[in-house]
Amino acid sequence: MRVYFGVLGPLRVEVEVENGGGQHSAAGPERLPRSPVLKGLLGVLLLAEGQRLSAGRLLDLVWADQATQVGLGALQTGVSRLRSWLGTFEDPGLVLDFDGSGYSLRLPPEAVDLGRFRRAVARGDLNAAVALRRGPVFADAVRVSHTDPLLRTVEEDVRAAVLAWAQASLADGSPEAALPHLDALARDTPLDEPVQAARMRLLAADGRPAEALRLFQALRQQVVDELGVEPGAQVREAYSEVLALDGDVQNVAPRPLPVPAQLPPDAAAFVGRERGTVRIRQALAAGRLPVIAGMGGIGKTALAVRLANQARADFPDGQLYVDLRGAGTDPADPGLVLSGFLRALGVEPGQIPETPVDRSALYRSVLSGRRILVVLDNAADEQQVRPLLPGAAGAAGSSGAAALVTSRTALTALDNSELVDLSVLSPASALALLERLVGAERVAAEPEAAAEILRACDHIPLAVRVVGARLAGRPRWSLARMAALVRDERDRLDQLQVGDLAIRASFGLSYDRLPAPARRLFRLLGLLDVPDFASWAAAAVADLGLDEAERHLESLVDAHLLEVAGVEPRLRYRFHDLVRLYAREQSDAEDGAAYQLAAVVRAVGGWLWFAERAADRIPGPCYAPIHGSAPRRPFPGVSGALLADSLAWFDTERPALLAITRQACALNLVSAAWDLAACQEKHNDVRGFYDEWQTVDLAVRELCRAAGDRLGAAVLTRGLIEVTTWTGPDDGSQTMVVLHERAMRLFAEFEALGVDRGAADALVMAAWSLVAQGRLPEALAVAGDALARAEKSEHPGGRARAHQIIAIARSEDDDLGLAIEHLSQALEIARALGNTRFEAAAAQFLGAAYCRVGDGERGEDLLIRAMVMARAFDDRYTETFSLLYLAKYYAAIGDSRARAAVETAEAISRRNKMSHHLADALLVLGRLDLAAGDPVAAVAHLEESVELWRRRGWGSFLAEAQEALETARAAAATTAG
Questions:
Q1: What gap in Å lies between CA 808 and CA 818, rounded to an integer?
Q2: Residue 49 main-chain phi, psi, to 5 deg
Q3: Residues 6+ positions from 48 with CB-CB distance below 8 Å
Q4: Distance, CA of 662 to CA of 955 (rounded, Å)
Q5: What is the pLDDT of residue 244?
Q6: Pick from 505, 503, 452, 504: which is nearest to 481 by CA?
Q7: Letter string b/e over residues 20-56, b meaning 16 or more CB atoms within 10 A of that residue's CB
Q8: What is the rounded CA–CA span in Å between residue 839 and residue 878?
Q9: According to the model, what pLDDT value does residue 252 have?
């Protein structure tokens, strides 16, 4: 059994069944669903041609004006009944599908006359295509909305095919072939003037000019009686052509039509927008519909009015303008707007139809063939705009009417639209606007105050205009006085209002039109002090599911209350500063303090949950991960994709992490603050953000100490010891000596807290200090204690670090065999942990040890591998160490690559404040200078090296540098003598 459907006319169902040796088709009303609802659902799903229709769209289509009174239950019941009805045909190719986003009816294209129509048009067989039309599309669907684009598009496509067939028949000299189809279409659309014009031409070509002229007279009478206007240009042109064929009839010129001129005056102070201006002009010239979108106060109206005034010559038949904002929160009624437009176009009030649909049809007919520009300002949505567009696409190039739309939303669902999204002014354009409003001399006299004012205005044109208007009205005010008024965020929006201009009111229009959940999210997001954020942060702050949060975020972006700040790896969003202030004002007015705090705590918990997991995946120093008790907001469903590259996640999230950590401090969220700061340490280490690491940890540690949070203070002290010992300038207090005292105090803190893993980390630090001081037996004892505690507390990273320092102590004592043994164990543990950065550190020390025992080939290979791994993470510290030991190895074997390697190490060390590596590099350079016979250069390098080693307090290196310096000085004296 095969089922065939028809929608190009009344709904039709045909069933083809086997009947003996042949096929038999049965059709007729008995095969149709009896229910109007089922007919409506079936028809619109067939018209959708397999496209999914959401539940809301189906309600609007099938129930039309009653959609708001009908619930989803009625739709689901109707779909269920339709599915049962379809099942009676036992056609496996007929499937009513639902995937969570919408409903679709899947069936072969040839099973629907619309599908066959489209295939015929595609292959150029217009005769076959138009023969499928049996009347208006879905003609018997009394309950279905015929103004919806789904039906209108099909009707327009069929109409276009009939007109194309008529044109082809006219060109072929066979008008009789197309006349029946054109006659049928004309009967169904008696006021469709292009159809009637084509019909007149076909009649004349068929040898019936008198009949064509009678058709014109009848049409003219109908248009005048029903619409109160003369027929449009296309009908008049066809009439003139027929008259040329029949000299017995005299042409009567139509009466002149009014030329509306409704545009507001152009803004006197207008700057910038060059790129948008070009795009809009190109869109209008190409017959597209420009949609200027942007946040409130961004200058959409000013740009649209300016361009419309400049384009008057291109639209000599007039310009229509309407502000669709309406009164209060209610946008303007399109039906009332159409009434006003029709009167401006010359239609008598008594001739204006009652219904919006009929008014829209008459409006398009009156505009047909006339070069008029329609400016639709401050549109709320596509539904408001569509009835006001002059034709299907909204623009017809220079040969007809065109439209220009402004809106706070993108209106991307409008056909043939060209989105021009406005952002804030550039600093230069904002300054130029202020100069035009206030006077260039006045602005030039106080450039710093002017720049501060513009920053406070966020370069938003309306805000700049408000400030400019206030200053223009107060010529004795200095710009510094105005800068002081807008400096304080707490009352900045109060200052940005004058007369009927107010930035707060402009934002309020967008905010008030949002649904309640989107308004709530907007308010709570405004509480965050971060520069930008991902959708999961929005879900956390508002306690929403991620999908729901993303839907509301898109609503805020569409309303231009948020903007997209980035797209990788997921969309990121940000506020303009003034919009954030407005959001906080609304939150202060509508949300209590406890409610606001709970929202921020959730957001902080989201960042902490991600940061904790990302930090665990970053290769770096093998310190024990120690966390506090702050609540987390988990996102298990998205963490895998976001944290696939944890370094990239931290790179993207770093500005927000720094900001949210500061906000946690300001709100006294102590445990969350120190945990966030600690989670960032490994990323700071890998990327070389040493100053930020130290600044943040110091500030948060003070908060911990003031709050009595000893664990947080100890964890951050551990990080501060690491960053200040190995990077940054030495302060002359013998850094490696001071390290022992600091490490042992930290050990006592962790010991008192019962945190063995932290105690093991502290002991390794102490062991490094003892090695530097040459106290090797003590160093080995302390490192052995660290190893035991790491093993007891199941801290493999601590074990690796303990083996490393034991190896270095053995190396200082020239026991290179044991050093290699311990370094091999450290390397094995690092590999087991998947910590490639510590693996690189262990490999470089091991490589250096092999070079010292004479196995240069193995040593060089390990050093180069370590350098490659370090460069993969942009780890300058580890890379420099490898370069230094490669230089030492090359110098030992007389390889000329030694100087290039050590000079690179010196440059990196100076640039990144690595005093330990710098001192070592200078020592190697001094020795190379001596070997090259340049003792003067050697003295300069070695004097700096000695001074650095003295400050660091590393005895063995200091002794080497001093010995080399004495040799260099002696050689320099001999050379001078």
A1: 10
A2: 55, 45
A3: 104, 105, 150
A4: 40
A5: 62
A6: 452
A7: eeeeeeeeeeeebbeeebbbbbbbbbbbbbeebbeee
A8: 10
A9: 39
